[in-house]
Design a protein that fits this description.
With about 240 residues, the chain is α+β, with helices and mostly antiparallel strands. It has helices at about 5-10, 15-35, 55-70, 80-90, 95-100, 120-145, 175-235; strands spanning about 40-50, 100-105, 110-120, 155-160. It has a 4-stranded antiparallel beta sheet with strand order 2-3-1-4. β2 and β3 form a beta hairpin. The longest helix is centred in the last third of the chain and has 61 residues, at about 175-235. The N and C termini lie far apart (about 85 Å). About 25% of the residues are buried.
Length: about 240
Amino acid sequence: MTIYEYFAILKRHWLLLLATMLVVAGAAFGATMLMPKVYTATTVQFVRGVPGTGGSAEYQAAQFATSRAKSYSVLINNADVLSGIINDLKLDMSPVELATRISADNPVDTVLINVTARGQSPDEAQAISVAAADNLARLIMRLESAGTSGNKSPIDIQTGVRAPKPTAPSSPRLMLNLGVGILLGFALGAIAALIADNRPARSSVVFAESRQGLHHRRRSLRHRRRRAAAADVETPVDDPVI
């Protein structure tokens, strides 16, 4: 079957195709509306190395900050960070649950740390992101200053971009789900159209075969009747005994 024949089938059954697409897209829309909305907010932290003395102190401090920033993102799920967020915001959730809502990453070869939080409302996402960034910075400063002269940290962390309040949910993504629903509906509708288009042909074949079989049975029955009638005629009748 050529592509033009497929298009012809879809054209003949366009109502079936359209109905299937609308049903599946409507189901995708309904499922999306029932999903809980999730909002995402990100705070950007800036890592700065504290320069020492010497002509190249600034350069060395910058290189030191870049190298150290690579390892800071894994500390976001530290117990002290999680408990600090919960205490600061008076959250009614466990550290394990909170850990699934926050994450941190360090863009390659930068001194930035992106602290991302997910919440059930814009305010919650923003508050968790800011609190997570603050508690992460405090933990890093404490770890970096431990064992140093005068407990002075060679690293300073400042908030570069405070998380803005999200204006739209990051999940579920309505347009994406609708697009997937329309494509899936088109595929299912095309399959239904092919089945519907082939059904009359199969029905015609079955009907023709049924008629042929019936005709054959009738001929066989007539043939048996003729043979039976001929046998009755040819059977001799015995004379009665006197």
